[in-house]
Each structure stands twice: as C-alpha cells, then as structure tokens.
Task: structure prediction
Amino acid sequence: MEDEYLEIIRNLKKLRKTVWEIKDWLNYPICAFNVCGKEDPPIIITGGAYGMSKAPVYATFELILTLNYERRIIMIPSRDPVGFHSISEIITYMFDTKIENINEIKDIVRENGGRIVIEKDETWLGIIKNVGFFCTDKNDINSRDFLYHLLQKYNLWEETDGIRILTPILITGNPKNDSFHTLYIDNRKILDYDTFISIENSIPESHSFIKFVEITQPMLLIDLEEHSNNMLIKINTGDEKIYASLKLALSQLSIKEENITLNKEKNLLEYARKRNIYGIQIFTSLKNNLEDRINTHITLTRSLINIFGLTYIL
Result:
C-alpha cells in the first residue's frame, strides 16, 4: 500500500520549490516549500509538532497549493512524520510485522533482541537499539510526566540518554488508527518536537529546523496544532496592535476573545520570541470532526495572514 505522506510530499515537490529538507530517524522527509511571493522577510507556517494531529498536516497540504501572496510564504507540512502514520504502519515499517493490538509490541521488542527494563502491572518500557517503547494503562499525552517519574525511580537516565521513546496515544484503541508520540531523552530531560529549551536541548530534527528558521529570519511564524478540548490561540507577544488584529480575525470565525492566550511554555513560540520573531499557534478542538478542523485551520491561517499583514507587516 502506498504511503500517503510520501506520495503527497513527492507530488508537492513537483509543484513547489523545496527550500529545506532533512530526513527524520526513520528516513521520512521533513520539507519546507516555497509556496508563493518574493517579498522578505517571509512568513513560515508549519503543520505542527505532533503528526498525530492530522488536521494541521492536511491543512498545510492544501494551503501549499492555494496560497497566493506577494509576501514570501514558506510551509512545512509536518515536523513529526512518524506521528502522522499509524502505530501499525510504524511497527510494520520497523519490524516487517503487522499488529492488531498494542500489547503485541512488547513481544516484538523481545523477539527482536530488545530488553524490557520496566514491567509492572500495565506499565512497561522496552528498549531495542536506540528506540524505546513506553506503554501504560492510559497511553495519552500525559504519559510523559509518568515516564519522567519512572526513569527517576529506576535510575534509568544514563541508559536511556540519547534514545527516542515512542508512546502510543490511544484515541480509538486501534493501532491502525492511533499514533505514536515521540519523546527524546537528553541529559535527564524528556523532549518532544515542540520542546526548545535551547538549540542544543532539542530533538535533532528540531535542532535542524531551528537553524533553518534562524537562517531564513521570518517576521512571522504560524504553527498549526490541535487541542483535546477547546479552540485556542497562543501568541508570543503582548503587542497591542497584533492582539487587536488577532481579535478581529477570530471574531470573523465567531471565536471568543478568551480563547486567546499569551504563550508561557518553552516551545517554538518562546524560541521565536527570543529571536524577535512574532509567533502564533492555532489549536483546533479534537471534539470537532476532521474536515471541520482542517477547514478551520485553513480559514484562520488565511485570515491571520491577511489581517496581520495589512495592519502590521505588508
């Protein structure tokens, strides 16, 4: 079966100029496309740090083909191609084995020469070569905090340093539909694709992405994400003109002012702020269906480019 992500990336390369590309740890391409325009400094738009959030990726695929502005716009469909794929697809890619149940991964690790370093009740951590698999009875985005506790408790920081740990994010409970969240252990810290403590303290692919951003020197960075509950907009500046522009854009989509918040995390927006780059993250609600989330990302991204541009940049 054709890999959807690879097929779309191949087609986009025929239609748009690739201005930056690296391969992730499983050899999936992470690409930046020059979408339109010639005026600098450019706007960079990414399809998010978590490929398991499908709507931002699909939204960027469409925006790459339809945006048309004088300002140069660069788009990166996904910073986490592994997360865009299902758990079953990744396991098949890595081990040439199909699974029907998440619990089968533990046996696959053992059968392929890996070790189970933590195993208690429904929780286990297995390591094979430079990749770990971490499963708990919850298997959600909060597994990261629990993993930190266990690595501390069992003194496994040195053994896991420099490896990636894949933890299932179970929404449907079916490995054919759900995806992995990729974590990276670095000097007693657990990082993911939206962790930017410093350019040194980031996942290698994120390190390369940040270097590209610094070379490109955009004026605005828009990051498309998803949130489990509510529509949310994060910004990295308290500039009144930008805030007013955002309120105007959001009002057109009947989004309330209280859905706008100032970013306080050590993520991409904070890193951009330190480089005097305006940053906006758009989170659609997972309560809505996929098509609605895609359309919201597309509509809001266009609105932000138009209104932000007219009042501040262009």
Q: What stands out?
A: The chain has eleven helices and 14 strands. The longest helix spans residues 290-313.
